[in-house]
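INFO batch 0412 | record 1 of 1 | parsing
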Amino acid sequence: MTQAVAAGLACRLAARPRLALFALLAACAGGSASAQDTAAALPRVQMPLTSTEQVRGSAAAPLTLVEFTDYQCPYCRRFQAEVWPRIRHDYVDTGKVRFIVRDLPLPFHAAAKPAAEAAHCAAEQGKFWPMHDALLAKGSDLSAQGIEQHARALKLDVNRFDTCVASGKYAAAIGHNATEADALGLRGTPSFIIGRVQQGQLSGWAVEGALPYEDFDALLRQALAGS
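INFO prediction complete | emitting tokens
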């Protein structure tokens, strides 16, 4: 896919054309562009979802927001600290948005893939989201020792967790997520798909980067309005 992706600050594999999102969202901010013009300017993508997604929020939510994340990316941590709490409060906890996270460990981040494995292994013990949040926390230690400390703090069965991480059993799933991101034209983290699901297919807008909450809010309001 060669379309440009609306972009903010992100860890990137390579330079790519970037759209000025503030201009695209002029209508939402009271500018002269129409909502239809704004929607038309953003790239549209489709991606299949599975029954094994890591999900926060109601399955009945009208919108779905998928984040492709790299646990070592500082901009993913910025999104987690500054933007995600407001999205969760205003949209996820109110039943408007279902949030899904997928792995996109970039090859120049050596700790990102082991951290993704750790999140999947924590999921086996029902602790995916606590581990996810711990790995993205400010100053989180992603070394093997640091990840084990997270496991102990979450009261996981550490022997079982360590065996899972050492086995690399989720490497294929992590690689599949990265391949799908590439097919969607996503070259950086965090990247997002915002849209609606029909018959297991998410159809929506591609957004790349740790955008301000106000930009996500404008996009989500526009999507809820049906544009």
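INFO post-check: The beta strands are 5-7, 11-12, 18-19, 44-48, 54-56, 63-69, 97-103, 188-189, 191-198, 201-208.
INFO record closed
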